[in-house]
Specification:
CATH architecture of one domain in chain B: 2-Layer Sandwich
CATH superfamily of one domain in chain B: CO dehydrogenase flavoprotein, C-terminal domain
Number of helices of chain B: 8
Chains: A alpha+beta, B alpha+beta, C alpha+beta
Order of helices and strands of chain B: EHEEEEHHHHEEEEEEEEHHH
Structural class of chain B: alpha+beta
Largest sheet of chain C: 7 strands, mixed
Distance between the termini of chain B: 66 Å
Strand content of chain C: 15-25%
Structural class of chain C: alpha+beta
Largest interface: A-C, 55 and 59 residues
Radius of gyration of chain B: 19 Å
Radius of gyration of chain C: 25 Å
Strand order of the largest sheet of chain C: 3-4-1-12-9-10-11
Shape of chain B: globular
Oligomer: heterotrimer
Helix content of chain B: 25-40%
Number of strands of chain B: 13
Distance between the termini of chain C: 46 Å
Strand order of the largest sheet of chain B: 4-5-8-6-7
Helix content of chain C: 25-40%
Number of helices of chain C: 20
Chain lengths: 152, 269, 709
C-alpha cells in the first residue's frame, strides 16, 4: 500500500504493506536508521518515535495509523541539547538504545521533573544493556534541563 | 486516507468492522495493536482491521452499568473522571501498573481481556463485569473470565456495576520480574460490611472467590488472609511454585484488607 | 569525571550510525531458520515442497546440505569438542536450527518457515544440570554421556590437600547454584554474507574474533584464508561475548548456493534460545580453617551446564579457578566438569565462567566469617593475593589428562587493599531506614579477573602518517559495541603523536588489512591492541623524527607476556521484604583496580554496565522452561533485564596504580565490574535477614524459601 507521512520534517512516500508496523515503514520504506528494533514486543523503547507529538513504540504501532501524520524520530533531534547531554555524560555505549532515549526525553511533558528520580521513572520503558543507566540518567536530566531552558 | 484499500482497514463503526472480519481471510482486529504486531503472538495477520475510528473508546453510563469501550487505553482509564471513585480504585491500580511505560498509551482494555492473563480481569470481576460482543449474529453479553469469542466477533465494551458510592476497592499483584506476568493478583472490594474478592495470575482463568465472600464476619484480617490462601488453586510452574503463590496471596490479602477495611471492622479483634 | 565520550557517540545518538541490521546490499536475500519445537528429537523427514512453492522463496537447506562445523582447534583426547552440526539431525535444544529458508524478503522467508514439513521423533530430554548428572539420567545426545569431557573433569591440585583437611580443626562446605542467563544485547543477532572476489566470501558479522572466524570459515568451506574476508561493522548493538552464534556459517552456505548476498536476522524470541547463554552452574566450595579462622586449604568443584554442545565450555569452566586463586592458602584443589543438557548452548558471555564461581566463593567466605565471628573485610585482607604473588589461574589444560598446569604467572599489580579501604568506608556510613516492613542489610565481596586470555594473544597495528598530514590507526581488533576500542586507540595514538583523538582516523577489524588480532575477548583489547598501537605510534614518531619522508607506515605486531589481572571490591546495601522475599538494591559501590584509567568517563561506564548485568544476574534474570522443555519466558518482557527503576545510581571509585607490565599502564575494564555484585548482594541479604541464599537469581521466591527453610 502507498504510505505517506511527514517524517523528520520531510514528506515521505513509499510502499509499505498494510499490516506493517510503523518501525517497519520507517526503517524499510523511509530508510530511517534512527528507529531501532530490539525487542519487537513494545517493551524496550529502542523504536520510540513521536506521532503527532505523542510517543509510541514504533514496533507495535500500525504504520497506517500514522498515515499522513507528523512523525519525529531521533533524527529530528540530532545533535540537539538532549543528544549532546547524553553524549557528554557517557550515556552512549553501543548506542542501539540511544535514539529511543533521545526521543523519550523529548516526549516528556512539563510535569516530569528534571531530576534523577523523575527521569528514572519516565525512562522505565527504555531498556539499555550497556550503561547501567548511570550516564544515561545523568545525561537525560541535564538534557531535559537544557531543553527547557531553550537551548538549541 | 486509504481506509478501504489493500490490507489495512479502519472501519468507522463496529458493524463495519464485523463485516470486514467476516470477509477477509487471516484478518485481525486491532485495538492498540500491541498483540497483533508484537512478536509475542506468533505470526503476523495478513489484514489489520484497526478499531481506532470505530468509536469504541468511550466511557459512560448505560442504565446502571458503567460501560468502558474496548479500545480505551490504559492511560485513558487512569485519567477518566468516571473512574476516580474509591470504589473503582482496584481498576485504577492495575491500569497504573503500565505507567510509566509508553505502552500505557497504546494498550487497550479489549486487548488486555484477549490475552487471557490480563491484569485488569481480576479487578473487573469485582464489579460483575461482562463483555459486550458484536458478531455476525448480533450483540451478546459474555463472561470475561474466561472470555471466549465466537468466530467473527469483536469486543465492543465491558459493562460493570460500580457498587455504592461508599465502596472501597484495591488490587495488588506480585511479579517475578518487574514487568513480567503476575504470579498473583488479588482484587478486593469492601462495600459496607460486604466483601468481594477476585484473583488472577495464581489461577487460570481468573475468578471471584464467591465461596468466601459475603458479610465481613468476626474473623481477623489474618484469618481472612489464611482463608483466601486456603481456597485458591495455585498454578505451579517455573515462574513461581504453587507454595509460593499460595503464601503470597495470603500476604497480599493481609495488606490489601488492612488498607481497605474501615477501622471499626479491622479492629474487631 | 574527566575523559571523553566515544568518538561515534553523537552519530549514534542522532541515529546516523549504521549497524549490521541497517545494511542493505543490492540483490540481498534473507534467511530464516527452521527451529526445533522440541528440546530433543530426531529428524525423520524434512519436506520443503510447500515452502518452496511460497512467494519469493529461493531455497530451503537442511542438514544434508550442511557439513558440521569442524574447526581446526584444540583436540581433547584426539576429539575436537567444539565440533557441532550447524543444521541438526538430532536437534538437542528448543530452538535448535534444523533448516534454513531463503527468500527475497525476510517476511516471505518467515511465512515459508511454517510450511516446511518436518517430522520429528520426539526424544526424552533433560534440562537441569543435576537431573543430567543423576544415575540413569536421560542422555542429552543419543548414545553419549552427559559428562562431556573425555577425561571427566579439568583438575588442579597443589599442596597436601588431604593432609590439611584431615588435620584442620574446622571445615566448612557449602554449595551454590546459578541460572542460565542471556546476554540480551540490544541489537538482534544477525549476519550478512556476500559473494567475494576469487570465488570467496565477504562476511559481515559482529564477531569478537574476525581473524579466527576467517580461519575457521575458510577451513570449513575448503577455501584459502585470503578468499574469506571478515568485516566487523564499526557499530555493534552490544556483544558481551554472545555473538559467536554460528549464524554466519549458515549464511555462508546459502550465499555460496545462491551467489547472492544473504542476511540472517533473528527476532528477539529466537535470540533468547539461539544466542549463546551464560552457563548455569552448581559449585561446591570446601574450606579448612585453623582456630583463628585462617584459611588453610580450599577446594572447589564446579559443574557447568553446557547446554546442547560444548562450544567454548572447556575454557569457560576453567575460569572458575579465578576466585580460588584469589586467596592464599597451603593447599588447593579444583575440579571442573561440563554437563551437556538440552538447554540452550552456553558459551562465552561477559565474565566467562568467573561470575558463577565468584558468587559461590565470595558467598562462602561470608558464611565462613559469620561462623567464626570475623570481620569479612579484615579476614580478606589477611588472605587476598598481593603484587608479586603467584596467580595460579593462568595456565593450560593437558588435553590428554585434563590436568591444569599453572604457568607460574605473578600478579604484576594489585590495589585490593585500597579497594577494601574504600568499601570499608562506604559500609561504615549510615545506611538510613528502609520502607516500613522492609529490612536493610549490607554486604561486600571481592573479585579478580583477567586482561586477555593469558595465552595465544596477538595484535597487529599500523600507524600511518599520510602525505596530506592526516593520521590513521589500523588495528585488527574489533569493537564490541560500546566498549570503545576505536576511541581508546585514537586516544593512545594521539597521546604519543600529540594530537587530539578526534583528528585520528581509526580503522578496525577488516581481515583484508591482514593485521591479525586474537580478538575482543577477556577484557584484553585496550591492553593488547592498545599497547600495540602505542608502539606503532612511537615507531611512526621516531621515523618522522629521523627524517623519513611521508607517507610513513609503521607496523607493529605484539603479544603480551602476562595477563595483568584487574580487581574489584563491591559494597551493597539491600532492602528485603521478609514477607514476599523481594529485594531492592539501594546502594551499590565498586572500588576498582584497572591500573591506569585511560578514559575515566567510559571506563566508569564499563564498570556500571557490568554492574547492572551483575545485578540482573543476582536478582532477576533467568530463562524459565516448562516441564516439557518449552520456553515460558516470552521475551525481554518476562526475562528481567534491569530497568532504570531497578538500579540505584552505580558508584565507581578507581583505586589502581599504573600496571607495570606495559608502558600504557592499563588493565582490562570490560568484565571486572560484573563479578563481585551478586555475592555482595547475597551477603547483604544474609546480613538483613540472617538467611543465606545460595541460588541465583535471588528473586522473591528464592529468598522467601531461604527465609522459610
Amino acid at each position: 500500500m502507498r504510505w505517506s507521512a511527514e517524517v523528520d520534517g520531510r514528506l515521505v512516500e513509499c510502499d509499505v504493506p498494510g499490516n506493517a508496523s510503523l518501525a517497519e515503514a520507517l526503517r524499510g520504506g523511509a530508510e530511517n536508521t534512527a528507529v531501532k528494533v530490539a525487542c519487537g514486543e513494545g517493551i524496550c523503547g529502542a523504536c520510540s518515535c513521536l506521532v503527532a507529538g505523542e510517543r509510541v513504540h514504533g514496533c507495535i504501532y500500525p504504520a497506517f495509523r500514522a498515515y499522513g501524520q507528523v512523525i519525529q524520530t531521533a533524527a529530528s533531534f540530532a545533535d540537539g541539547p538532549v543528544a549532546r547531554a547524553l553524549v557528554e555524560a557517557g550515556g552512549v555505549q553501543c548506542g542501539f538504545c540511544t535514539p529511543g532515549m533521545v526521543v523519550a526525553v523529548h516526549s516528556l511533558s512539563t510535569d516530569v521533573p528534571a531530576t534523577e528520580a523523575g527521569i528514572r521513572h519516565a525512562l522505565a520503558g527504555n531498556l539499555c544493556r550497556c550503561t547501567g543507566y548511570a550516564g544515561l540518567v545523568a545525561g537525560a536530566v541535564a538534557g531535559l534541563q537544557r531543553l527547557r531552558a531553550g537551548e538549541p | 486516507m486509504p481506509s478501504q484499500a489493500a490490507n489495512y482497514y479502519r472501519p468507522q463503526t463496529p458493524e463495519m468492522a464485523v463485516e470486514l472480519l467476516a470477509n477477509l481471510q487471516g484478518a485481525a482486529v486491532i485495538g492498540g495493536a500491541t498483540l497483533a504486531l508484537g512478536k509475542l503472538g506468533g505470526g503476523r495477520p495478513s489484514h489489520l482491521i484497526d478499531l481506532c475510528d470505530a468509536g469504541l473508546d468511550r466511557i459512560g453510563w448505560r442504565g446502571h452499568h458503567l460501560s468502558i469501550g474496548a479500545t480505551t487505553t490504559m492511560r485513558d482509564l487512569r485519567r477518566h473522571p468516571e473512574l476516580s471513585a474509591p470504589g473503582l480504585a482496584a481498576i485504577m491500580a492495575m491500569a497504573g501498573h503500565f505507567e510509566p511505560l509508553p505502552v500505557a498509551a497504546q494498550a487497550t482494555l479489549g486487548g488486555n481481556l484477549c490475552t487471557g492473563v490480563g491484569s485488569l480481569v481480576a479487578p473487573l470481576l469485582l464489579y460483575e463485569a461482562h463483555a459486550v460482543l458484536l458478531g455476525p449474529d448480533g450483540e451478546r453479553h459474555a463472561p470475561i473470565a474466561p472470555l471466549r469469542l465466537h468466530p467473527g466477533e469483536i469486543i465492543l465494551s465491558v459493562e460493570l456495576e460500580p457498587g455504592s458510592p461508599m465502596a472501597r476497592s484495591g488490587c495488588q499483584s506480585l511479579r517475578r520480574t518487574p514487568v513480567g506476568p503476575a504470579l498473583v493478583t488479588l482484587a478486593a472490594l469492601v462495600d459496607g460490611d460486604q466483601l468481594r474478592l477476585a484473583v488472577s495470575g495464581i489461577e487460570a482463568p481468573a475468578r471471584r472467590l464467591r465461596d468466601l465472600e459475603g458479610r465481613w464476619d468476626r474473623r481477623s484480617v489474618a484469618q481472612w488472609a489464611e482463608s483466601i490462601a486456603h481456597v485458591v488453586r495455585p498454578i505451579d510452574d517455573a515462574r513461581g511454585s504453587a507454595d509460593y503463590r499460595r503464601a503470597m496471596v495470603g500476604v497480599l490479602a493481609e495488606r490489601l484488607l488492612k488498607e481497605l477495611l474501615p477501622t471499626e471492622l479491622r479492629e474487631v479483634h | 569525571m574527566s575523559g571523553m565520550p566515544l568518538l561515534d557517540a553523537a552519530d549514534k545518538a542522532a541515529g546516523r550510525a549504521k549497524y549490521l541490521t541497517d545494511f542493505h546490499l543490492p540483490g540481498m536475500c534473507h534467511g530464516v531458520l527452521v527451529r526445533s519445537p522440541h528440546a530433543h528429537a530426531l529428524l525423520e523427514g524434512l519436506d520443503p515442497a510447500l515452502a518452496l512453492a511460497m512467494p519469493g522463496v529461493l531455497a530451503v537447506l537442511g542438514p544434508d546440505d550442511c557439513p558440521p562445523h569442524d574447526l581446526p582447534g584444540e583436540a581433547f583426547y584426539g576429539r575436537n569438542l567444539m565440533t557441532r552440526p550447524l543444521l541438526w539431525r538430532e536437534p538437542a535444544w528448543l530452538g535448535c536450527p534444523v533448516a534454513v529458508v531463503l527468500a527475497e524478503t525476510a517476511d516471505q522467508a518467515r511465512a515459508a518457515v511454517a510450511k516446511v514439513q518436518v517430522r520429528y521423533q520426539v526424544l526424552p530430554h533433560v534440562l537441569d544440570l543435576e537431573d543430567a548428572l543423576a544415575k540413569g539420567a536421560v542422555a542429552a545426545h543419543l548414545g553419549r554421556s552427559n559428562l562431556a569431557l573425555p577425561f571427566g573433569a579439568i583438575t588442579y591440585e597443589s599442596g597436601d590437600l588431604k593432609g590439611v583437611f584431615s588435620s584442620a580443626p574446622h571445615t566448612i562446605e557449602t554449595t551454590y547454584h546459578t541460572s542460565t542467563v542471556q546476554a540480551a544485547a540490544m541489537e538482534p543477532y544477525a549476519c550478512l554474507v556476500e559473494p567475494g572476489a576469487d570465488g570467496g566470501l565477504i562476511v559481515h558479522k559482529g564477531t569478537p574474533a574476525p581473524y579466527e572466524l576467517r580461519h575457521q570459515m575458510a577451513h570449513w568451506l575448503g577455501l584459502r584464508p585470503e578468499q574469506v574476508r571478515v568485516v566487523v561493522p564499526a557499530q555493534i548493538g552490544g556483544g558481551f561475548g554472545s555473538r559467536m552464534d554460528d549464524l554466519e556459517y549458515v549464511a555462508a552456505l546459502a550465499c555460496r548456493k545462491l551467489q547472492r548476498p544473504v542476511r540472517l536476522e533473528l527476532e528477539r524470541s529466537e535470540g533468547l534460545v539461539a544466542g549463546r547463554v551464560r552457563h548455569g552452574a552448581r559449585i561446591r566450595v570446601r574450606s579448612a580453617m585453623d582456630d583463628d579462622g585462617n584459611l588453610l586449604a580450599r577446594e572447589i568443584e564446579a559443574d557447568y551446564n553446557a547446554g546442547a554442545h560444548l562450544d567454548l565450555g572447556p575454557y569457560v569452566v576453567l575460569r572458575a579457578l579465578r576466585p580460588l586463586a584469589l586467596y592464599r592458602c597451603q593447599a588447593v584443589r579444583f575440579s571442573g566438569r561440563l554437563v551437556t543438557t538440552n538447554a540452550p548452548v552456553a558459551s562465552a558471555t561477559r565474565g566467562f565462567g568467573n561470575p558463577q564461581a565468584t558468587f559461590a566463593v565470595e558467598s562462602h567466605n561470608d558464611e565462613l566469617c559469620r561462623r567464626f565471628g570475623l570481620d569479612p573485610i579484615e579476614w580478606r585482607r589477611r588472605h587476598l593475593l598481593r603484587s608479586g604473588d603467584k596467580n595460579l589461574s593462568v595456565g593450560v589444560v593437558d588435553t590428554q589428562t585434563g590436568q591444569f598446569v599453572a604457568k607460574g604467572a605473578t600478579i604484576s599489580s594489585c590495589a585490593l587493599d585500597r579497594c577494601l579501604d574504600v568499601v570499608q568506608g562506604a559500609l561504615s556510613e549510615p545506611v538510613g531506614a528502609p520502607l516500613e516492613g522492609w529490612i536493610r542489610g549490607k554486604g561486600m565481596a571481592v573479585a579478580m579477573h583477567t586482561t586477555g586470555k593469558g595465552r595465544n594473544e596477538i595484535s597487529n597495528a599500523k600507524v600511518v602518517l599520510r602525505a596530506d598530514g592526516g593520521v590513521e590507526v589500523h588495528s585488527g581488533a574489533p569493537d564490541q559495541g560500546g566498549t570503545g576500542v576505536a576511541t581508546s586507540l585514537a586516544m593512545i595514538a594521539g597521546e604519543v603523536l600529540g594530537l587530539p583523538p578526534q583528528q585520528i582516523r581509526v580503522v578496525l577489524a577488516d581481515t583484508a588489512a591482514e593485521l591479525a588480532d586474537s580478538g575482543a575477548h577477556a577484557s584484553g583489547r585496550t591492553y593488547i591492541a592498545g599497547e600495540t598501537v602505542r608502539q606503532a605510534a612511537e615507531k611512526a614518531k621516531q621515523l618522522r623524527a629521523d627524517g623519513a619522508p611521508l607517507p610513513i607506515d609503521a607496523h607493529v605486531a605484539w603479544s603480551p607476556q602476562t595477563n595483568a589481572p584487574p580487581f574489584a571490591a563491591c559494597a551493597a546495601v539491600v532492602d528485603v521484604d521478609p514477607q514476599t522475599g523481594q529485594s531492592r538494591v539501594v546502594r551499590l559501590l565498586q572500588a576498582i583496580d584497572i591500573g591506569r584509567v585511560l578514559n575515566p568517563l567510559m571506563a566508569k561506564g564499563q564498570i556500571q554496565g557490568a554492574a547492572a548485568q551483575g545485578l540482573g544476574f543476582a536478582l532477576m534474570e533467568r530463562l524459565d522452561f516448562t516441564a516439557h522443555g518449552k520456553l515460558l519466558t516470552r521475551g525481554l518482557l518476562d526475562y528481567g533485564v534491569p530497568r532504570t527503576l531497578d538500579l540505584p545510581d552505580l558508584e565507581v571509585v578507581f583505586c589502581g596504580e599504573p600496571e607495570p607490565s606495559v608502558p600504557l599502564g592499563v588493565k582490562g575494564a570490560g568484565e571486572i565490574g560484573l563479578m563481585a555484585v551478586a555475592p555482595a548482594i547475597a551477603n547483604a541479604i544474609a546480613d538483613a535477614t540472617g538467611a543465606r541464599v545460595r541460588r541465583l537469581p535471588m528473586d522473591g521466591e528464592t529468598v522467601w524459601r531461604a527465609l522459610n527453610s
